[in-house]
Write a structure and sequence with these properties.
This protein is of the alpha+beta class. The chain contains nine helices and twelve strands. Keywords: ATP-binding, Hydrolase, Kinase, Nitrogen fixation, Nucleotide-binding, Phosphoprotein, Transferase, Two-component regulatory system.
């Protein structure tokens, strides 16, 4: 049984059964979910833990006959005192003691992993798109601005000069936009000790200064969170971008005097995100009681140039996600009318 002890370190639900489907080993995560002690699980027919035992029985028979190396299917796992849990079942035949490993991944967790993979792939695609688009724009933009300046020197009429000034002004505006798109990829990562609550307090002071009336800022900190290595300025900009967007979305509630913005910090233990498992991670929430993210942009909120308000550049959240990913973390969002929660996840030492 000592061969199976490493499975106790996993957050996923794992059991090892013999060729007859009897449990040889059950890890602690499965014990917790089933609500049954490990001693009670070992020696029982594991198929009986499912609402449809025949699915597992058939899969085990296929594994014993070497019909496949691994098999996957969805099922419902029975739990003591709770509703059945939908899980993704992964069955793998191993030579060790002629046993079979049955891994169960709650479908909610599987959905989360799929979402995280999409976010990471989206961020990488955004990065390549921004770089290529920015470089394609910069060269002709410089030519347009230079041509307008030369043309202005040849003109005697103030009325015509006004037109060249419009061209130069708009070229400068586009140049500024391109520079902002490229900024996170150009600036070196300045690593130092970061106290996340100092970051939040800096952002809080900026938000309160800009919105002095009608907005209540709530601080819900876990002061035991340790310092970690990171780029303080990038993290300030990240939290500020999210908080500023939230404050602007709260304009109607600010006018009514009941707007609320919450900074909430917690430590997560044994968490998996970005396809990696971490012993500890910072979980920083920026929560507002505004109207929520429009349904039309929920799936594209971190795309560049996508904004939920008139006049928005659509770069704030894109830059925030980029900065957090440079800390091996990620940002998630959960939004319904009346509550929007941006969650920043960063690994801790």
């Amino acid at each position: 049984m000592s061969n199976f002890q490493p499975f106790d370190l996993l957050a996923t639900l794992v059991t090892v059964v013999d060729r007859n489907g009897l449990v040889l080993f059950s890890n602690a995560a499965l014990e917790d979910v089933l609500g049954i002690s490990r001693r009670s699980i070992v020696g029982t027919a594991f198929a009986e833990a499912f609402t449809e035992p025949s699915q597992l029985q058939n899969a085990l028979e296929g594994a014993i006959e070497n019909e496949f190396g691994a098999m996957r299917y969805d099922a419902w796992l029975k739990r003591v005192g709770f509703d059945a849990l939908p899980v993704h079942v992964i069955i793998t035949r191993v030579d060790l003691a002629d046993s079979i490993i049955v891994e169960l991944v709650p479908l909610e967790q599987q959905t989360r992993q799929d979402r995280e993979e999409r976010i990471l792939e989206q961020a990488q695609s955004n990065k390549e798109l921004i770089r290529n688009l920015a470089h394609e724009i910069k060269n002709p933009l410089g030519g347009i601005r230079g041509a307008a300046q030369l043309l202005e020197l040849e003109m005697d009429s103030p009325e015509l000069t006004e037109y060249t000034q419009v061209i130069i002004h708009e070229a400068d505006r586009l140049q500024s936009l391109v520079d902002r798109l490229l900024a996170p990829h150009r600036r070196p990562h300045m690593v130092g000790d970061v106290n996340i609550h100092e970051v939040c307090e800096r952002v809080r002071s900026l938000i309160v200064a800009e919105f002095p009336k009608g907005l209540r800022v709530v601080r819900d900190y876990d002061t035991s969170i340790p310092e970690f290595r990171g780029d303080r300025e990038q993290l300030i900009q990240t939290v500020l971008n999210i908080a500023h967007n939230a404050a602007q979305a709260l304009s109607e509630r600010i006018a009514e005097g009941d707007a609320e913005l919450t900074f909430k910090s917690r430590v997560m233990r044994q968490i998996t995100f970005g396809k990696q498992r971490y012993r500890l991670a910072l979980e920083l929430h920026v929560i507002d009681n505004g109207p929520g993210v429009p349904d039309s942009i929920k799936d594209r909120i971190f795309y560049p140039l996508v904004s939920g308000r008139d006049g928005g550049s659509g770069l704030g959240l894109t830059l925030a996600q980029t900065f957090v990913q440079q800390h091996q973390g990620m940002i998630e969002v959960d939004s319904v009318p009346g509550r929007t929660d941006f969650k920043i996840l960063i690994p801790l030492p």
